[in-house]
């Protein structure tokens, strides 16, 4: 939703939002620091904020948390504008190498990869959807050598961190209260949310808590929001540390190298801040939590990575490990957009008004509280998954709008779609009432890599996810798209006149519409990331040659 351009004029009013919620204050940060700490945590994002908070609960240790970005701002608090935060100063704004089997409709065949460069990391840019992994995911980790990471091992920690504000869900035993991370259902929903749930029921998917006993089903999702505003890991885990004297948080600190002693033990971190280079020693550990891109980049710059690659760049090898490999990402085929005949979607001209703006600022209510426009999640099994296993292979995001809902401002800026694709497929529907279905591939078999582009720590690394290079991925994706089409044909969607976009799709119109060949072409033309890159520092059994860290990290 391209609302960012309107928000600067509203910033004076946003102060009221801070007055009504003390927890939106930013954490204390410092412009000075000690020369040595027990623990140094690099990256204050979705994991780093949690780790630093937890470690500093012990008053006998001293913790330093380094973050390359700065604090959150007022705009990042607004759930609906999540997409508009991309390609701004809080985003690293990475992009992939040109893709050989996908992204045909994107400029240069490159996918743009947002990553949070801010306290809270990508929890400041994401869509705030509270979705745990399937229990079989964790059990599979343990089967592959990550002992201690099975579902029964990790489930108690989900409960420990959670402060769920919906009593009926808490009573189920699968949720908890009292943790740092606020989880709640958005206070606003369009009428379409009910239609999505009814469509799921019509094709055999129950309305359930997807974080409960079973995952296969559809749900109006909960999100990491607090009183209608985003609850990032910075707000959840760092703001409560404001009174701790043993935690120092330093922002705008770009880590450039890990220094090792003669025994190959990490002893210090080197970082740049305000055009000066600093070195801080660690008495116990240096913990990297800079994400699936920046963590492998920092390791390789420091001599930890594939020997051949490091030697090519003249970097002395500290440890020969497969850092940067095993890159995987959640992707979906864009383009499943549905035109409707009822004025019930989230349309920019409809919600930019004093009533809705005040509703959010003063009370944390109204359309601005929706999770980036996502109003329903559906976990489904394609024909390639076993329903009895309750291990869905696709997750559908139902968005009560589409790239045309704001006239294309956000879509064209953050997704990097070609002008031809926009003009032909999207432009005819600008500012019309629409919704979208995004079927996300949950267990991709295509794997890519991250490598250094140079020895310059400010040079973005080479990112090649190799989307859709494994044949099974496109088969699963096409079948998931057919399930989406079946949902569109249900009475729940037809009563709002649901009809797929029929405008020309460049490169695909020689295929009959909605055949397998057309759907495959659509998926390869507009291949979209859901912003979940993982795997580049794989955890596993120490004897596994693809492992970077053991189960003790």
From TrEMBL:
<dbReference type="InterPro" id="IPR000172">
    <property type="entry name" value="GMC_OxRdtase_N"/>
</dbReference>
<keyword id="KW-0274">FAD</keyword>
<comment type="similarity">
    <text>Belongs to the GMC oxidoreductase family.</text>
</comment>
<feature type="signal peptide">
    <location>
        <begin position="1"/>
        <end position="21"/>
    </location>
</feature>
<keyword id="KW-0732">Signal</keyword>
<dbReference type="Pfam" id="PF00732">
    <property type="entry name" value="GMC_oxred_N"/>
</dbReference>
<dbReference type="Pfam" id="PF05199">
    <property type="entry name" value="GMC_oxred_C"/>
</dbReference>
<dbReference type="GO" id="GO:0016614">
    <property type="term" value="F:oxidoreductase activity, acting on CH-OH group of donors"/>
</dbReference>
<feature type="binding site">
    <location>
        <position position="118"/>
    </location>
    <ligand>
        <name>FAD</name>
    </ligand>
</feature>
<keyword id="KW-0285">Flavoprotein</keyword>
<feature type="domain" description="Glucose-methanol-choline oxidoreductase N-terminal">
    <location>
        <begin position="291"/>
        <end position="305"/>
    </location>
</feature>
<feature type="domain" description="Glucose-methanol-choline oxidoreductase N-terminal">
    <location>
        <begin position="116"/>
        <end position="139"/>
    </location>
</feature>
<protein>
    <submittedName>
        <fullName>Glucose dehydrogenase [FAD, quinone]</fullName>
    </submittedName>
</protein>
<dbReference type="GO" id="GO:0050660">
    <property type="term" value="F:flavin adenine dinucleotide binding"/>
</dbReference>
<dbReference type="InterPro" id="IPR012132">
    <property type="entry name" value="GMC_OxRdtase"/>
</dbReference>
<dbReference type="InterPro" id="IPR007867">
    <property type="entry name" value="GMC_OxRtase_C"/>
</dbReference>
<dbReference type="InterPro" id="IPR036188">
    <property type="entry name" value="FAD/NAD-bd_sf"/>
</dbReference>
């Amino acid at each position: 939703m391209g609302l960012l351009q309107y928000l600067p004029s509203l910033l004076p009013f946003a102060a009221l939002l801070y007055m009504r919620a003390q927890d939106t204050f930013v954490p204390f940060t410092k412009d000075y620091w000690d020369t040595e700490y027990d623990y140094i945590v690099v990256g204050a994002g979705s994991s780093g904020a949690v780790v630093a908070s937890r470690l500093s609960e012990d008053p006998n240790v001293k913790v330093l948390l380094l973050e390359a970005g700065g604090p959150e701002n007022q705009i990042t608090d607004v759930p609906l504008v999540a997409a508009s935060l991309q390609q701004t100063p809080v985003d690293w704004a990475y992009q992939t190498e040109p893709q050989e089997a996908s992204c045909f409709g994107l400029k240069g065949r490159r996918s743009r990869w947002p990553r949070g460069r801010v306290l809270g990391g990508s929890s400041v840019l994401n869509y705030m959807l509270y979705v745990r992994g399937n229990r079989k995911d964790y059990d599979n980790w343990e089967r592959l050598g990550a002992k201690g990471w099975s579902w029964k091992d990790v489930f108690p920690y989900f409960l420990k961190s959670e402060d769920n504000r919906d009593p009926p869900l808490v009573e189920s035993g699968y949720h908890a209260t009292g943790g740092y991370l606020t989880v709640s259902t958005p206070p606003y929903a369009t009428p379409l949310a009910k239609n999505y749930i009814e469509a799921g029921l019509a094709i055999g998917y129950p309305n359930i808590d997807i974080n409960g006993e079973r995952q296969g089903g559809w749900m109006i999702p909960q999100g990491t929001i607090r009183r209608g505003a985003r609850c990032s890991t910075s707000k959840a885990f760092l703001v409560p540390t404001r009174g701790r004297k043993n935690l120092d948080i330093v922002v705008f600190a770009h880590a450039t190298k890990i220094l090792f002693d003669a025994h190959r033990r990490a002893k210090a971190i080197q970082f740049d801040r305000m055009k000066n280079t600093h070195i801080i020693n660690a008495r116990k550990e240096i913990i990297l939590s800079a994400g699936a891109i920046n963590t492998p980049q920092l390791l390789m710059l420091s001599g930890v990575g594939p020997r051949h690659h490091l030697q090519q760049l003249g970097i002395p090898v500290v440890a020969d490990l497969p850092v940067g490999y095993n890159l995987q990402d959640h992707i979906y085929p864009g383009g499943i957009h549905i035109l409707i005949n009822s004025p019930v979607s989230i349309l920019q001209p409809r919600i930019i008004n004093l009533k809705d703006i005040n509703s959010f600022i003063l009370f944390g209510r109204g359309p601005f509280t929706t999770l980036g426009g996502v109003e329903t999640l559906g976990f489904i099994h394609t024909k390639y998954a076993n329903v009895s296993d309750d291990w869905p292979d696709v997750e559908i995001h139902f968005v009560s709008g589409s790239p045309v809902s704001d006239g294309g401002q956000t879509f064209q800026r953050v997704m990097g779609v070609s002008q031809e694709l926009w003009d032909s497929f999207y432009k005819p529907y600008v500012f019309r009432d629409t919704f979208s279905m995004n079927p996300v591939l949950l267990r991709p078999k295509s794997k890519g890599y991250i490598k250094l582009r140079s020895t310059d720590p400010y040079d973005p690394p080479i990112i090649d996810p190799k989307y859709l290079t494994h044949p099974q991925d496109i088969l699963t994706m096409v079948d998931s798209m057919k399930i989406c089409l079946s949902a569109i044909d249900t009475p729940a969607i037809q009563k709002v006149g649901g009809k797929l976009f029929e405008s020309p799709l460049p490169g695909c119109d020689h295929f009959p519409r909605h055949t397998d060949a057309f759907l495959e072409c659509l998926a390869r033309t507009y291949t979209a990331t859901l912003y979940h890159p993982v795997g580049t520092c794989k955890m596993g059994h120490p004897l596994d040659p693809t492992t970077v860290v053991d189960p003790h990290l």
